[in-house]
Each structure stands twice: as C-alpha cells, then as structure tokens.
Amino acid sequence: MSRWTLKWTKRLSLLAAGAFAAFLVIRAVDSQRGPPLELWHSFVPEDLHAERIDQLDWAGYLAAEQRTFDQVRREVTDHLPPERRTVDNRYYAESPVYPGHFAQDWNRSYVLEPQGPPRGAIVLLHGLTDSPYSTRHIAARYRDDGFVAIGLRVPAHGTVPSALTDTAWEDWSAATRLAMREARRRVGPDAPIHMLGFSNGGALAMKYALDAIEDPRLTRPDRLVLISPMIGITAFARFAGLAALPAILPSFAKAAWLSRVPEFNPFKYNSFPVNGARQSHRLTQALQQQIRTLSRAGRLDQLAPVLTFQSVMDFTVSTRAVISSLYEQLPANGSELVLFDRNRNTKLGPLLRPAFDTVLARMVPAAPRNWRLTFITNASEDEAEVVERTTAAGATEEVTRRLGLLYPRDVYSLSHVALPFPPEDSLYGNQPGPEPEFGVSLGGLAAHGEVGVLILAMDSLARISWNPFYSYLMERIEAVIPPRP
C-alpha cells in the first residue's frame, strides 16, 4: 500500500469513526426527549427462548405462558403508580381495556376445536407487536369447516412491550415448530395441515415451510396462506441495532425504544423497541437467503402452494419484496398473489401522490408468470365498484370478474394492518356492535381538532384498520380448504 493510499485510508477511517461517534451522541440526546419509561417499558418478564421451547410440548408451553402473564400482573398491574391507574391503560386492572376481564383474553395462545373429530388442522401466526387476536376470525372459519385451529402467541408478545427487548427471531421460530408438532399430534399422520401467517407471522410461516424442505423431521404444511407477509422491510431496520447502543448506559435507557406511547390497545403494543425492528430484519434476511438457496437448488417445487393477500400500499412491509424475493422465485406449484389496489374513485384523489399511480407496473413482472396474479381494483376511475382482474399462471390473457363490492369513497387504500379484520370487528372494524366487546372500538374513531393535542400522530388515526373486502378474502381462503367428503 502506497504512502498516499495509507494516508487517505487513515483519514477516511477517522472520518467514519467521527461520524459514528456523532451519531451515537445525537441518538443519545434525542432519546431523552418525551415521557419517562413506564413499568411496561422497563420490566422484562421471563418468557421462553428457543432452547427451552424445543424441549416442551403444547401443555408445557401453555403452562409457561401462564407463569409469564402471572408475573406481568404481579410486577406491572399490581405496582402501577396512582397516576397510571387510568381507564385508558390496558395494564390497570379496573380499566375497561384490561384484558384480564374479558371472557377470553386473546393475548394468549388458543385452540378452537371443531364439532366431531378434526379433519385437518391450521396453525395461525400473528404479527410483530401483535397478538393472537388478529387471527381469531379466520381461525373460527377453519374451525367451522372441521379443522382444529391453533393460534400461537409468539414469545415476547401479548404481555408488555418491554418483552421485545429480550427476544430473538429464533425464539419465534421455535414456537412455530412446537405449534406444528401439536397440530400433527391432534390430527394424526395423514390429515392436511395449513399454516396462516399475518405480517411477521407470514415470515415465520414461510421460514418454517422452507425449513421443512431441508429437515425431513418437520411436518410439511399442505397449504400456506399469507396476509401482508413480512418478506422484506425498510432499510432502516438494517441499522436499528446501532440506534440502541446508547442504552448500554442506564442513563440512556430510552434509546432502546423507537416509540413510547400510551398502551390503550388491549391486544397490541403501541410502543416499539429497537430490538423488534432488528429481529424482524434478521428474520427477513435469513428468509430471503433461504429462498434464493432453495430456488437455485431447484427444491422449491417441494413447497406447498402459497396464497398471499397484500395491499399495494403498505407502509410496514415491502410489497416489492413479496413479489421479487418470493413470488418471482417460485416454480409453477399453484401459488397465487392477490393484490389490493388503491381506490381510484376516492374523493381524496387530488391529495394523493402521483408516484403511486404507477407503482404496480414497476413491481409486477410481465406475463406469463409461474403463479396466478389477481388484482382487486376499481372497475374504472368513475366507479366505486371493484373488480377482480386475474391472469392465470402461464397465461397472458387477463380475465375480469365483477365482485359486487364497493370501495368506500373516503378510503383511499387498504393498509398493512387492515386485511384480516372484517368491518364488524369489535375492536378494529368501522361497524362494531353497540357495546364494545373489548372496552373500546378503535376502528370507528374519527378525530377532528387542533394539531399537537393528541397523544398519537394523526397518521395512526388515519390508517385504516378494517378490510372493506374481507368477505372476498374469506371467500378465497374458503376455496383452498379441502371440501368435506
């Protein structure tokens, strides 16, 4: 190495070190803003990790889950300071949104049994910061069709958001394996087993299915249903772990959090720690690498057919990654991608960014494709009614079918969180019953007033949490459930 090259290498190294140090200082200072850490941000319950999960059966997993919830009650609920004993705090025992008062606490793992012997099983996996609540409607439909439905509470979820500071995606995968072992135990060696994953749960379902190709000891699913799957996420998550470095010092513990807001949702964390983003990124990186490896080896033909529902507009996961990192790698195995377009008849049209008009054309490869593509969009820009535009695998001709469903004019798109919830959902729907089943009806809220007053950003309230096309989604899922003999 020449003297000149060595000189500039040292300079660049010093510059990089200085920039990194400046980043840490800025991050540490910025993290001190906002409210102090609450009990649910600082107390970390004892939840299960991969090594222990792999040694347990379903009964052991539920027993450990119960101990974790008991610990949260003792250390958080029973120790709330007086100023935090408010009706909008899910950890206050007298609050209407306290999950412990509900007939069923959907933060916990559940099993829905059909009438008579089960003719199959489905394992349902929720998303990051989420809970088994998000899979309950689809689980009930499978149950009614003769399947035993196993809704897994993924470790570090359903309790307190601080649990996500002490977890790894390998823990989530171990729990997925356990749920699949339980599914096979309940239905015997020959009955079909489906997997459904929402968001981060979609990544876990896909990871398990790929692991089952490589490991013959694992039960292979017969069908994968993915809803807003986390195949890829934003580039920021790649460096999220660095954002938490100042938290090594106790004085900067707040740096471990990307957001800290009040916890008024009984079945989902509002606060989000850095480690949650980091583990999701690690999971998607491992998943994408495994898809590429098995694709190059020609082994993806052993993968079960995949039915995916995805909004073209998704702020949480990458729709492009669903297409490029998953579907473009699939062989012709009967898979299908259903995309929900934005509303092209909305009264909010002039306020939408023009770049979104061409986003789909930039993402989807030209036909023919190895998989079926279905596009849900307005019949025309002058019509609220939506149509199904389908191109079969290996074909180039598009077939259109009217669905008799309308895109609400005040809804400009679906969202990442909306797809698994019907309009009638008591918590997230816009048409809940007269009495909130879970203490609050978030989907029906319409807030108007001055900026800077609410504890949440207006974007959170504007984000749709229910699916106006839920009936169509269920129709398509029902079509992949094996018919009764």
Number of strand segments: 12
What is CATH's topology name? Rossmann fold
- Runs in which pLDDT lies below 50 for 5 or more consecutive residues are 19-31, 239-253
Mean pLDDT: 88
Most strands sheet: 10 strands, mixed
Adjacency order of strands in the biggest sheet:
1-3-2-4-5-8-9-10-11-12
In CATH, the architecture is: 3-Layer(aba) Sandwich
How many distinct folded domains? 1
In CATH terms, the superfamily is Alpha/Beta hydrolase fold, catalytic domain
Alpha-beta content class: alpha/beta
Gap between N and C termini, in Å? 75 Å
Radius of gyration (CA) equals: 23 Å
Per DSSP, the total helix count is 13
Helical content stands at 25-40%
Which helices and strands occur, and which strands form pairs?
Elements: H1 3-31, H2 39-42, H3 50-53, H4 58-75, E1 110-112, E2 120-125, H5 136-144, E3 147-152, H6 169-187, E4 193-198, H7 200-214, E5 223-227, H8 240-243, E6 257-259, E7 272-273, H9 274-296, E8 306-311, H10 319-326, E9 336-340, H11 359-363, E10 372-378, E11 385-391, E12 398-406, H12 458-462, H13 470-480
Parallel strand pairs: 2-3, 2-4, 4-5, 5-8, 8-9, 9-10
Antiparallel strand pairs: 1-3, 6-7, 10-11, 11-12
Concise synopsis of the structure shown:
With 485 residues, the chain is an alpha/beta fold.
Task: Supply database-style keywords.
single chain; 485 residues; alpha/beta; Rossmann fold; ten-stranded mixed β-sheet; two-stranded antiparallel ribbon; 13 helices
Could you walk me through the main structural features you see in this protein, from its secondary elements to its overall organization?
By secondary structure, the protein is an alpha/beta fold. The protein has a single domain, classed as Alpha/Beta hydrolase fold, catalytic domain (Rossmann fold). The protein contains 13 helices and 12 strands. It has helices spanning 3-31, 39-42, 50-53, 58-75, 136-144, 169-187, 200-214, 240-243, 274-296, 319-326, 359-363, 458-462, 470-480; strands spanning 110-112, 120-125, 147-152, 193-198, 223-227, 257-259, 272-273, 306-311, 336-340, 372-378, 385-391, 398-406. It has a 10-stranded mixed β-sheet with strand order 1-3-2-4-5-8-9-10-11-12, sandwiched between helices. A hairpin with a 6-residue loop joins strand 10 (372-378) and strand 11. The longest helix has 29 residues, at 3-31. It is globular.
